[in-house]
Amino acid sequence: MSLILCPGARNYFWTASIIIAGCLAILTSCRWATIADLGKEDHITFTKTTAMAAMKKDFPRDRFHDEKKLHGKGLTVEECRQIALTNNLNFQTAKLDELIKASLSHGEWARMLPHAIVSAKFDEGDNIVYSDLMGDSYWANYYERSAWRFFLEGRWSPTDAALAYYSAKNADNRIVQSHYETVRVSQKIVESVEVSFFRLLSLQACLPEANRLVSIREQITKDMGDLLRDKLAAMVDYHKAKHAQNKARSILSQLTADAERQRNMLLSTMGFLQDSAAGGSRFDIQGELREPHVIQIPADVELEALRNRPEAYRAGVKHFESVNDYKRSVVKNFPRVTLFWRYLDDRYNHPYDKNRQQAGILLYFDVVDWLTNFADSCAASRDTVKTEKEVSAIALAIGSQARMAVLKYLWLLEQVKIKGDSLADSCSLLEVAKRRASNDDLDKLAESEARAEMILEKIEWQRAVGESNAGFAELRSAMGTNLKPF
Fold first, then answer.
1. Alpha-carbon distances, residue 73 vs 64, 65, 134, 256, 475 (angstroms)
2. Residues whose CB falls within 8 Å of the CB of residue 158, separated by 6 or more in sequence, listed in order
3. How many angstroms separate the CA atoms of 423 and 288, rounded?
4. What is the largest CA-CA distance in the chain?
């Protein structure tokens, strides 16, 4: 619509245009660096500030002293699990995401309600403004005075309500997906805690034995050197003793590094930093290192995992989300229908007709939009087939993971049995060496050698027991039985 402005109104128009152009020139000018920096987003500073605040807030150095039994006696696996489910940031993020999805769902359901629009406009002019459109009596009858105009409209579209309905159902589906994601995050947290706990527990038991092994090997090397100087031992035997000593030191170094690594992993899963544990006391755990119970593996282990793990259910919800998207795309192909009622209060519109009401039905159909929506419907239809196949793929993956976890656990149990038999044999050899020992130096070396081999086998057995417990934790996570049913 083109407007013919009278001279007085034209002055206001040019004044407003000059002011707007000046503001745009100031905001877009490179010379006004201070103003331009107002909208600049410094993500580097924000990230550093937020990360440091999280370090100070979530990981204070004395936080360990606020936890039960964190210094003095060590934590049990149940206490570590409870602390992890309380402090783990991934779990907190998953819970917040679930709450966010719930809030968004409420907004989606509200879109189905009728729309109510209330507006008010104040016009002030000193000249008549005319329109070049025929029949446009609104501008032709505009009075030369100030005027308040009030407008009220209520409208509701069945088409928009149907679209909002399927969008709201998908919003609810996303809540369910977030809940399943939270459950799986919890299961993975419990798995990580238990795996690190039992490995660290076995390493804590191995370290004293490794120190004893190094001491015995050093003494054997020293005694073998004395015998070599007295020409009572061969050079080959001395080098074998030296090699065994270096191997014992390597074992001790590896065990120490593995213990620190498992400790850091456990602390990280529990929501702590390593340096926060070092301020005043050392983080330790307590528990009995024993062979895991031989459980009865169900014949349908794959089905058991499918019943307890949330990934397949999450994929099923995602499939229904794609179905709703397809239905929503089908609704878009129909003409848009809108029911409306309008009320206008314009006291200066006409001396005898100041209020106007209008009610009706609006039909809207766009051919170009219909072609686009038809293509979207085809894509959404294919997406439903894809999500259905994803459910099957995830189910097969869960079953495979559960079966592999069972096989690994059975292999670890077999390793514990083998290491236990080797340890028993070493203990028998040590007893024989003790009975045969005399004051002869070679007999004493044989006894020390047998004791060193026994300690080495004991370390191997302890590590195997720790790995079997960790494997049992992985099996429970793969089957989804390490937490209560959701």
1. 13, 12, 92, 20, 29
2. 337, 339
3. 19
4. 133
User: In this structure, what is the dihedral angle of CA atoms 193, 194, 199, 200, given to the nearest 10 degrees?
Assistant: 50
Spell out the domains of the chain, with CATH numbers in brackets: 41-477 (1.20.1600.10)
Cβ atoms < 10 Å from Cβ of 171: 22
Q: What is the pTM of this model?
A: 0.75
Sign for the pseudo-dihedral over CA of 261, 266, 269, 273: negative
C-alpha distances in Å from residue 446, one per residue of 64, 169, 239, 430, 438: 48, 77, 16, 9, 10
For residue range 170-209, list pLDDT tens digits in order: 999 999 999 999 999 999 999 999 999 999 999 999 999 9
108 neighbors 168 (Cβ within 8 angstroms): yes
Contact predicate 184/311, CB 8 Å = yes
Dist. CA 407–CA 401, nearest whole Å: 10
What is the DSSP secondary structure assignment for residue 349, as one 8-state letter?
T
Q: Within 230-310, where are the H helices?
A: 235-269, 274-277, 301-308
Under 8 Å between Cβ of 227 and 202: no
Backbone angles phi, psi at 42, to 5 degrees: -95, 90
3 forms beta bridges with 131
